[in-house]
Specification:
813 residues; elongated; Serine Threonine Protein Phosphatase 5, Tetratricopeptide repeat; single chain; 4 strands; two-stranded antiparallel ribbon
Length: 813
């Protein structure tokens, strides 16, 4: 937009009156007189000037503003330019009325045009006019022009009202995040020794919060206390600053003094705009109140030295607090309402900080104190408390709090519902998460929907994800790339992992992938690295090797080459190895070097796994050597695939030696390392190998999982050791729950009735437990099966004869 750079007219300076310069009557007379003031007692009287104007006298200003409101700027300009005509006399109230509209709208272009008209008519302006012009320019984003005006006023020695202009400009620069102009304004204020007032300190507090500068807030506090008596409004601003910067200790101390200050009958008023203020002379006055004392300032400066427990005790209502409650309730009229509102806001701010710092206990104590002070918690208060409770994972308590809010006709806001829904999704409680999402009115926050889709993926319930995505489309929710990444993972494959792909599933998978990509194109979203990997994995899980390679060639094109990296090739290599396309996998490894993509540890593990398909241990050793040469340490996953290659030769002694080496070299072996050997030993009915591996697991304190139980039970059953099979299954099921006897005893008290019950509903209950914890549910189901077979359930697995024999096996056995 073209900006008009304008010149400023000559100003008329008032004479000194009681040490203060005030704008006075211009040297002209008649209808062009602007800015004649009487003696004023403070800046707020100046701000109120022009608000009590005669409706008939402002008829010309009303015509101009009406034209602007209707969008007829040319007509408004014509009216303004014809102001010299007798029927259109331009007076001070007309100018104020027009400038107020331009500042409120804002309309910086018309305010500059008004300025030029006033300049052409040689009309002097008042402090109010300059303030409105500056505000219109600042609100409209014309900061450079506003700075010109401030400099113009400063150069003409109008120091009596330069500080309000600086404050207006400073506030706009902070809002526009223009730090260059902010620093320039602060430098000018310091150079001109303009000083600071309460408005300045408020702007500096906002700047410190935006810069996350807690030390600056404390410095502002100390400087403020030197010149001003703290009032309930200023304390509220400092509390807001402390809570936004997560300084809970300082916020609590300030809140405590704020409650003490509320006992006094200090006047609290409202401006025309509905803002609270304490009427007082806004000039530097040394503080003599207890709040501004050096003792309290030292407390604020050294807030970290306070004991947390002692600080909490201050906020628990005592008899003095009850007296404060009585005094607050005894206040009458608007003061009581104003004090209650301001106190409630400050309590809300501190509870909001408790939510961010995950301090739900303190948040609840603050609620109790509010009620004892006679402050009824608002919807905002309950929302902050709910977030504090949710932050520590107490979902059930948060639900109860929402019910309490409903009983009080208070509605939780969308952010609270979103946060609770996210936590329910993380807990895999899809019913509750979906119910909360349905209560959200109109939120464009994608996080709760992403969390729900992730939960659907974890629970393998794509049908629920389809319904949620359909709801998102109905709400005209524009998805982002994270949504599409999950859609490829959820719907890219059809039969996996239950059965292998076939022609029908291939056709369905292709149809789904095409539909998702078309939707991406419609919304103007390109593939990300994660969406590409999920798509490639979907094609690989369906065994669609040809389509997989075709899509990789598409990624290799110049349009998507920026996302081509090691993870992309690893996804393709893994799918090729799973499909036993060994030669294509080797060729793909060679292509990585052509594109300059370096392999990582996962790449080498996949290729070593490929060697197991080809039964080539020599190639696996070569790859292992390359892996070490490239600086990648041998990890548990590497030993797992090496053991898998060994087992292709069914060389169990060498395999067990490799297992011992893995245990001694890796930091923490995982259960998959042992299951790899157990699987082959079960198939070959090698009980000796099974028991040796179990002995190693016992020594390393490795908890078995469901496949471990399956392999061990099957190995004994194949060899017709049925009693030992049931005994081993019972012991491993106990160990799958926990190795700790106290934990097992707790599980016994809670679930033993389900194991021994003859009611069929017990199995339904256990299946519900499986949804929350697979290991616990599977262990309970297995123990119930052992009980049905007539085996007595012992909750001390180490006392089992089989477990004792396994634990005492020799490593050479």
């Amino acid at each position: 937009m073209h900006r008009t750079i304008f010149k400023f007219p000559r100003l008329f300076v008032a004479e000194s009156f009681s040490g203060t310069l005030l704008p006075i009557r211009a040297k002209q007379s008649g209808p062009f007189l602007v800015g004649s003031y009487q003696t004023v007692s403070g800046s707020r009287d100046l701000l109120a000037y022009g608000s009590r104007r005669n409706p008939i006298a402002k008829s010309f200003g009303l015509q101009v503003v009406t034209a602007l409101q209707l969008g007829h700027k040319r007509q408004a300009s014509d009216l303004l330019s014809e102001a010299d005509v007798a029927d259109h006399a331009l007076n001070a109230e007309d100018i104020i009325y027009i400038l107020e509209y331009c500042a409120r709208t804002p309309d910086p272009l018309f305010v500059m045009e008004t300025w030029r008209v006033l300049e052409g008519k040689n009309i002097a302006l008042s402090w109010k006019c300059y303030m409105l012009i500056t505000r219109a320019l600042c609100n409209g984003g014309y900061l450079e022009e506003a700075l010109q005006l401030v400099n113009f006023v400063r150069e003409n020695n109008h120091m009596s009202f330069i500080l309000p202009l600086y404050n207006c400009f400073l506030r706009a620069c902070i809002k526009m995040k223009d730090m260059v102009l902010v620093n320039q304004c602060l430098d000018l204020m310091e150079l001109q020794c303009s000083g600071k007032n309460e408005v300045t300190y408020t702007s500096l507090l906002k700047l410190a919060v935006r810069q996350e500068n807690l030390s600056a807030v404390h410095e502002i506090w100390r400087e403020y206390c030197k010149y001003y008596n703290m009032n309930i409004i200023s304390l509220r601003k400092f509390i807001w600053s402390f809570t936004r910067l997560k300084d809970l200790k300082s916020a609590l101390q300030t809140l405590h003094h704020m409650v003490d200050l509320a006992k006094e009958r200090t006047s609290v008023c409202k401006t025309v705009e509905g803002k609270f203020y304490c009427p007082q002379l806004d000039i530097p006055i040394p503080s003599i109140s207890s709040v501004g004392s050096s003792e309290y300032k030292d407390q604020q400066a050294n807030s970290d030295s306070f004991d947390d427990e002692g600080l909490r005790c201050k906020l628990i209502c005592s008899e003095d607090d009850m007296e404060s409650s009585t005094r607050i309730r005894s206040l009458k009229g608007p003061y009581r309402n104003s004090v209650e509102v301001i106190l409630r806001w400050s309590f809300d701010d501190v509870i909001y900080a408790c939510a961010h710092l995950q301090n739900d206990e303190l948040a609840q104590k603050l609620i109790v104190q509010m009620q004892k002070l006679g402050l009824e918690p608002s919807s905002c208060t309950y929302n902050s408390l709910a977030k504090a409770i949710i932050s520590v994972g107490r979902i059930g308590d948060a639900i109860e709090l929402l019910k309490e809010m409903e009983s009080k006709n208070l509605k939780p806001n969308d952010s609270t519902l979103s946060l609770l829904s996210i936590n329910c999704s993380k807990a895999l409680d899809l019913d509750l998460a979906e119910s909360l999402l349905n209560q959200i009115a109109a939120s464009h926050n994608a996080l709760p929907y992403i969390a729900f889709l992730q939960a659907c993926e974890a629970m393998n319930q794509p049908e629920r994800a389809v319904k949620m995505y359909a709801k998102m489309r109905k709400l005209k929710f524009k998805p982002d790339i994270r949504i599409y990444e999950l859609l490829f993972s959820l719907f890219g494959n059809v039969n996996f992992p239950y059965e292998e792909g076939n022609l029908l599933s291939h056709a369905e998978a292709t149809k789904r992938i095409n539909a998702i990509e078309i939707d991406m194109l419609h919304n103007g979203i390109d593939h990300s690295k994660r969406s590409t990997i999920n798509l490639l994995k979907a094609l690989g899980s369906e065994g669609m090797v040809q389509q997989l390679l075709q899509y990789l060639h598409r990624v290799e094109s110049k349009f998507f080459s920026h996302i081509l990296d090691t993870d992309i090739f690893n996804a393709v290599l893994h799918s090729l190895v799973e499909a036993k396309e060994n030669h294509k996998a080797i060729e793909m490894f060679r292509n990585m070097k052509v594109y300059g993509v370096l392999p990582d540890a996962a790449t080498y593990n996949i290729l070593i796994d490929c060697c197991s398909n080809m039964r080539c241990y020599t190639s696996a050793c070569v790859l292992l050597s390359m892996m070490i040469r490239d600086g990648y340490p041998i990890q548990t996953s590497t030993y797992t695939v090496l053991i898998k290659v060994h087992l292709e030769y069914e060389d169990f002694p060498e395999t067990l030696e490799l297992l011992d080496r893995a245990i001694s070299e890796v930091e923490k072996p995982d259960v998959l390392l042992f299951n790899t050997i157990l699987r082959k030993a079960c198939y070959r009915e090698r009980i000796d190998v099974v028991e040796t591996v179990l002995h190693a697991m016992y020594q390393q304190n490795i908890q078995p999982d469901v496949p471990t139980c399956s392999y061990v039970f099957s190995a004994y059953a194949r060899c017709e050791f049925h009693n030992i099979a049931v005994e081993a299954l019972q012991v491993l099921s106990m160990q799958m729950i926990s190795h700790d006897l106290d934990t097992l005893e707790d599980i016994r008290r809670r679930y033993e009735h389900l194991i021994l019950s003859e009611n069929e509903e017990a199995e339904i209950r256990i299946m519900q437990i499986i949804q929350d914890s697979l290991e616990l549910g599977a262990a309970l189901l297995t123990l119930r099966w052992c009980s049905i077979l007539g085996s007595s359930i012992s909750w001390v697995p180490d006392q089992s004869p089989w477990a004792k024999r396994i634990s005492t096996l020799s490593s050479n056995e």
